Amino acid sequence: MRNEDLMTKRSLLGLPVGLGLAALGCAPALAQTAAPTPTLNSGDTAWMLTSSALVLMMTVPGLALYYAGLLRKKNMLAMLMQCFFTTALVTVLWCVVGYSLAFTAGSGPLAPLFGGFSRVMLVGTGLNGLSGTIPETVFAFFQCTFAIITPALFLGGPADRLKFSSSMVFVGIWLLAVYCPIAHMVWGPGGFLANLGVLDFAGGTVVHIDSAVPGLIAAIMVGKRAGYGRDNMAPANMAYTMVGASLLWVGWFGFNAGSALTAGGLAGMAAINTQLATSAAVLSWVIVEWMVKGKPSMLGGVSGAVAGLVAITPACGFVGVSGALVIGLAAGVVCFWGVTGFKGMFGYDDALDVWGVHGLGGILGALLTGVFALKAVGGHSGLIEGDPGQVLIQLEGIITTIVYDAVVSYIILKLIDLTMGLRVTKEDEIEGLDITQHGEVVSHG
Q: What average pLDDT does range 128-135 have in this prediction?
């Protein structure tokens, strides 16, 4: 799709050209018919600061508790530490160079793939710099929280056997070599996938597919956990997991509704779509599990919620409530199969089902975005486009993300394995990562 066609299509949708692209004033066709120069809006700014805090809460403590509760007791602190340290590491890297690589215009033939260095150390954002109607510093902070949770998500794949040092080296390199280019391609000025017309409102490709690929590759490369398929590896604390999932659910409104970048009707539509799809996915997952296994589980309920949240993420600002309902119902069924049937077919040990939920859920959501995107979101005159061409464009975005991510992630992991080693020793794994990696244990009291 030509760039002019993309701008026209997204203007018909009544939506930003792409998260960050329109907000940064970098959409060339849009600029030709641009409204008056944006001015600071205190309501939008307050909403985006709130959204940023909500998304940060998704990682600490949300994802940290969700993941830790799913592991055995001897490895809970190790996962909490990985999520906590990732938050700090990614924040520093993002402010130093990551934001610039993702959200500024690049130069030369690689400009559609990589941003530039004009915002290194956030130079140029300043107190008065604007990104649409909000300060650019707020936009950079909002995007920082996305960059934090994405690598934290893939840590669930190789959980229980990955060295802390190696995992954090991987997080740092992967952020700059994979996350920033993918974010630039989808949301950045002149990005390759944005120019193709790929629709991703809040991160179906940039966050979920992007995190699921290295999660799966790392899980395969480090091998199965000691005792996998033989020992009892039931979750240590489903209460932690339920609380963590609940924090994810609430925080996701910052993730999805915040991606509107304004406190208006579009944010409201993204919010109700998020709530509806998540609820529908809980119902479909639990009902299918109930039919297959005979009992509805708390684990199934929270897994369904996360599946619905993942699948609606790319679509939440592009579809109406009927589309959100279908996406949620489908996500519960598809992701249930992903963590049972698909995983069983290939026999890999993805400890916390990153691929089954975030990978398959992200792919499903991205494809169905192309099916259910509306010409006028929330408008009574909106008609479902049903454009097969958009589905193909979405598929192209999915394939591009998977291929680039898989190749670069494998290279990074292989280099780390050859130099530092990826996996802890068998003795350390059996004793538990809490004590062997960090010298601490969860209290037995």
A: 90
441 domain residue, yes or no: no
The pLDDT value recorded for residue 376 is 52
- What's the pTM? 0.91
Residues 6 or more apart whose Cβ sits within 8 Å of residue 5? 197
Number of domains in the chain: 1
pLDDT for the residue 129:
86
Average pLDDT of every residue of the chain: 90
**Residue (of 239, 324, 336) closest to 296 by Cα position:** 336
User: How many whole angstroms separate alpha carbon 180 and alpha carbon 153?
Assistant: 16
95 in a structural domain: yes
Q: Is residue 1 part of a domain?
A: no
- Read off the pLDDT of each residue in 398-412 and give the average, rounded to a whole number: 98
Which residues constitute the domain of residue 339?
8-31+42-123+130-434
User: Closest Cα partner for 336 from 314, 364, 370?
Assistant: 364
Kindly state whether residue 440 falls inside one of the protein's structural domains: no
Q: Does 33 have pLDDT greater than 60? A: no
How far is Cα 218 from Cα 216, in angstroms, rounded to an integer?
Answer: 6
Question: Distance of CA 311 to CAs 27, 150, 339, 360, Å?
Answer: 27, 15, 15, 9
